[in-house]
Amino acid sequence: MKTSLILTGLAALAALAFIWPSSAETAHAIPAPTGDEATAAGAQTIVLAGGCFWGVQGVFQHVAGVTSAVSGYAGGERSTAHYETVGSGRTGHAESVKVTYDPSKISLGKLLQIYFSVAHDPTELNRQGPDVGTQYRSTIFVMDDGQAKVAQAYIAQLDAAKSFHAKIVTTIERGRTFYPAEGYHQDYLTLHPSQPYIVFNDLPKVENLKRLFPAIYRAEPALVSKTGS
Q1: What is the pTM assigned to this prediction?
Q2: Which among 60, 215, 48 has a CA at the least distance from the CA of 147?
Q3: Does 101 reside within a domain?
């Protein structure tokens, strides 16, 4: 949906201010996963879905230890991995971000802490903010059983601690292929910082990352235009 995608000018800003009188994004200070620590293994990837991929990508591009964050689609077939088709909500895809990271510098658990606390609201079912549909669902697309175990344990920990006002609805999906999104969706937050949707919904996420995780916030984002993947 993205509320008509591109709104411009003062009239658009006024309209958005009426819809969202203040930022729709609020951070949640939550505990880190129990027993979490970085390892010395090679590069790892995890695919995370949490609403519009512009903001999720923008957050993880600013995380130290993340070498690449690519917007795309996961959950459906290759033939339907196109923005306009995914927007129908009938493809099985979710707007997702493939995060590649160095586990000697940042753990999977820390990435999930950021995902749950600032990248999106894991208690919203099939929506995030103004965007509604299964394509905006909260899902962790795991690469292996080890990632699934970490994710399941952390969700159980957060629910037991009542870290949120409601139960976490994030699902865990296995065996799904990630398909990169169209080029114009990559690095969208950095390239369009004045776009009203970005201003109201996504820039606050990056500010929340900087505020809650100052030790791992990176001012210079890992852009797809620079990493190439």
Answers
A1: 0.90
A2: 48
A3: yes
